[in-house]
Design a protein that fits this description.
The complex is a heterotrimer of chains A (254), B (141) and C (385). By secondary structure, chain A is α+β, with helices and mostly antiparallel strands. Chain A is built from ten helices and ten strands. Chain A has one domain: Alpha-Beta Plaits, CATH 3.30.70.20. About 6% of the residues of chain A have low confidence. Chain B has six helices and two strands; from the N terminus they run αααββααα. The chains are: A alpha+beta (254), B mainly alpha (141), C mainly alpha (385).
Chain lengths: 254, 141, 385
């Protein structure tokens, strides 16, 4: 059989498609690699309880937020549209929508410190197309800024508004950066990392350490004897919008 | 036959374009002698043999990167048993190699290899002692 | 490949149009380079409204791409002979539209250099992964089908037998691309506007209205500008399809409004309140939405009365109204209002900036250029017969 130039080109194109498809199938097959799931960290579930009564008594205090942002080189961008925030104060009625009538003290401008909820069933992790965000076995929802493609699907998925995108280069807004922690680059999403770099050194999160009233208690929710569990068993605590099924690990003592 | 000038002109143009980098190099008076890297006085050995590091430092850095961020591997044990903290800024630069400008850039510039974008996020210790501003202004070229 | 030469001969008007599109592409590319340098801060997007016109246009053009099925299905499954000459126009429209979708996703990425991470770390639990799989599959299907069919036509031989199952496969595949695109949005907690099980049917209804409407306009343009005539009967039948699909689409929108507004649940009602009336004086989308409503109702009136619909001039106007109406509602309102109010109960306005429009224009121009070249080749092949 004589092979014409056209036939040859067709076969060539066909083989290219076949090779491409093979690569894809192989890639899908290996999707379940142990990389993101397999972690050497023990069976912990890190969580935090915030005592809003103490916060209320220190109206206007933002030491936790400052400590967090300084530690992690979070830029202070004046343009509201491009803001980056890991831990910040928000009005009570915005944090707990539809939770109180118009006449409570909370409706009158009290603020609540909010951060990533490090959910047990995180929507952001479910939607991320590259596993740039994933949940560690100790409950910390991690971000890999090397892998993030900046599609912002996680921002659409997070029902708590905990994620920020670097719309502009953050470095000019940093002042003197903390040399022990990287900055971020334009085009990636970032959020609170529960101070995983400090946890690895056996330290408490920076916000917890910065609070003069010890309003934030951090610990292992799976350990019945941990201070956080003691606290939660003794006081009435709420999570943000638990009905969404995400399972936040941040509790607010009201 | 009348095409001869056209053909030669075309050939000349082709050769000129292909050898352009050579002419550029000559014009820029670049030397074929590579930059001399000073080994840190207090260390005899990098985390891996010199030849390996020269050839495959990016592979090692990427393995460190993925290990630390994704697998909670915060320490690296070298072949000679020394344990290192996995940290580009803290270990590689601060402990031995000084700064991005002193170490990475010199080779990368000489070899014409555009720097990977490590420095879009990671900070380098200041090239000159006390020059903190250089860190903030540092970044990708 | 053998037919590409046909695209290189044409009238002055043809080349003028190509040049115009190339200028738009160049402008778009220049804007994109600025965005690449500066970051997405160049757009009107914000921490609260983190997806805008790029993603909205992506959604709209997935619909246009899927709508090829509205000519392929009647012809191949119901033997509607009037569509014999235009199925290929639908398939080529799908190719151009899917390409636009991919470009819209690409220009929306903060780190476009890392786009291959989606393949390197395939993540089946992400709907974005499946969207990529279904869109690229659909692109390949339509490219193969259109090429094989046109090559057979050029040689005056019947198409090879193996193409029939491929064509049949493209029908459910078209439905799948828009279903998966709806799944991108409607599986998210905390975005009540999108959290509706009829989002996929709504997407399909609006797709089957906007796509064939565009096809009617394209057929009429081809008749005017070239020797190719789709035929009155084919255009009339397309008109019927648009009429049904648009009716269903408006009905679905009514269902959404009833559910959200009658129940009075604030987080479901608020996005609609924002769209149609504005909240806290932030009403940038209000004129967009009302214009969409007026155009939709006018189009329905023209399409549902057979006497009006049979008049091709009226049909052309109605098709234009359908296309623009859905472009406003789906290509802007639906995606932006999904972010309003934000999870922290904040109403943030969004409007595309000039560079953003430049990039959008560039992507449209790429689509229009592809379509022009494809249709030029098709018409030339048919003229040669």
């Amino acid at each position: 059989m004589k092979l014409t130039r056209k036939d040859f080109l067709r076969v060539l194109a066909g083989s290219a498609v076949a090779v491409g498809a093979g690569t894809l199938v192989h890639a899908v097959g290996s999707a379940n690699d142990k990389e993101s799931a397999g972690s050497t960290v023990g069976k912990k579930r890190w969580g935090m309880a915030v005592d809003l009564r103490k916060c209320r008594e220190e109206k206007g205090c933002d030491l936790c937020s400052r400590a967090c942002h300084r530690t992690h080189n979070v830029p202070q961008i004046p343009d509201r549209a491009h803001e980056v925030k890991w831990l910040w104060n928000e009005r009570h009625d915005k944090v707990f929508p539809f939770q109180q009538n118009d006449y409570t003290r909370q409706a009158l401008g009290e603020t609540v410190p909010i951060l990533c909820n490090h959910c047990t069933n995180p929507a952001c992790v479910r939607v991320c197309p590259t596993q740039a965000t994933w949940k560690r076995t100790d409950g910390v929802v991690m971000m890999d800024y090397h892998r993030c493609i900046g599609c912002r699907y996680c921002m659409a998925a997070c029902p708590y508004g905990s994620r920020s995108f670097n719309y502009v280069d953050p470095r000019p807004y940093l002042g003197t950066p903390n040399p022990d922690f990287p900055t971020r680059t334009t085009g990636v999403v970032e959020k609170c990392n529960f101070c995983e770099e400090r946890l690895a050194d056996g330290k408490q999160p920076a916000c917890v350490e910065a609070c003069p009233r010890n309003a934030m208690v951090f610990g292992d929710l799976n350990d019945g004897n941990s201070p956080i569990r003691q606290l939660l068993s003794g006081r009435y605590a709420v999570q943000r919008q638990p009905e969404l099924g995400c399972g936040p690990s941040i509790f607010y003592l009201v | 036959m009348g095409d001869r000038p056209l053909i030669y002109a075309g050939l000349f143009l082709f050769v000129a374009l292909v050898t352009l980098p050579v002419w550029q190099g000559i014009a820029a008076q670049s030397s074929t002698v590579g930059p001399e890297l000073k080994a840190p006085a207090h260390k005899k050995q990098c985390v891996a043999p010199r030849a390996y590091m020269r050839e495959a430092h990016m592979e090692l850095l990427m393995a460190w990167r993925d290990g630390k961020v994704r697998k909670h591997e915060r320490h690296y044990t070298a072949a000679d048993g020394t344990v290192y903290n996995v940290s580009l800024t803290g270990t590689c630069l601060t402990q031995c190699h000084g700064s991005k400008e002193k170490f990475c850039d010199r080779c990368h510039e000489y070899a014409g290899v555009s720097a990977p974008n490590c420095w879009g996020c990671h900070t380098s210790p200041p090239a000159e002692p006390g020059g903190v501003a250089a860190v903030a202004a540092g970044g990708m070229r | 490949m053998i037919m590409l030469d046909k695209a290189f001969t044409g009238s002055g008007r043809y080349w003028g149009w190509i040049a115009f599109l190339l200028v738009l592409i160049a402008v778009g590319f220049a804007c994109y380079l600025r965005q690449l340098e500066y970051g997405l801060g160049i757009t009107g997007l914000s921490r609260d409204v983190s997806w805008g016109i790029y993603i909205a246009q992506f959604t709209f053009f997935v619909g246009v791409a899927a709508s090829a099925v509205m000519v392929v299905l009647p012809y191949y499954l119901h033997n509607v002979q009037q569509f014999a000459r235009i199925t290929i126009l639908g398939e080529l429209l799908a190719v151009a539209a899917v390409t636009m979708c991919m470009l819209f996703i690409f220009v929306d990425m903060g780190q476009p250099a890392r786009v291959l991470n989606v393949l390197l770390y395939p993540t089946p639990h992400s709907m974005m992964f499946w969207d990529m799989v279904s869109l690229s599959g659909y692109l390949v299907l339509n490219l193969v089908i259109a090429y094989v069919m046109l090559a057979a036509e050029q040689k005056g031989v019947p198409a090879p037998h193996w193409i029939k199952p491929v064509i049949i496969l493209s029908i459910p595949w078209a439905v799948s691309i828009h279903t998966v695109t709806a799944f991108l949005y409607n599986g998210l907690p905390g975005r009540p506007l999108w959290f509706t099980a009829i989002l996929a049917p709504r997407f399909l209804a609006s797709a089957f209205a906007s796509g064939p409407a565009l096809l009617i306009l394209l057929c009429l343009a081809l008749r005017r500008l070239t020797t190719f005539d789709a035929g009155h009967e084919a255009i009339r039948r397309l008109g019927v399809i648009v009429a049904y699909a648009m009716t269903v689409n408006v009905f679905f929108l009514f269902l959404e409004l009833f559910t959200a507004l009658y129940s009075g649940m604030p987080d479901h009602a608020e996005p609609f309140a924002y769209l149609f009336f504005g909240i806290d004086g932030k009403n940038g989308l209000v004129p967009v939405m009302w214009l969409s409503v007026v155009l939709a109702l006018a189009a329905l009136l023209a399409l549902l009365v057979p006497r009006f619909r049979r008049n091709e001039r009226v049909l052309a106007l109605a098709s234009l109204a359908v296309f623009v109406s859905l472009w406003l509602e789906k290509g802007m309102g639906l995606i932006v209002a999904g972010f309003v109010p934000s999870p922290l109960r904040t109403v943030t306005s969004y409007a595309p900036t000039a560079p953003e429009w430049g990039i959008v224009g560039g992507v449209w121009a790429v689509g229009a250029l592809m379509l022009t070249l494809f249709y030029k080749i098709t018409v030339s092949v048919r003229e040669a017969d």
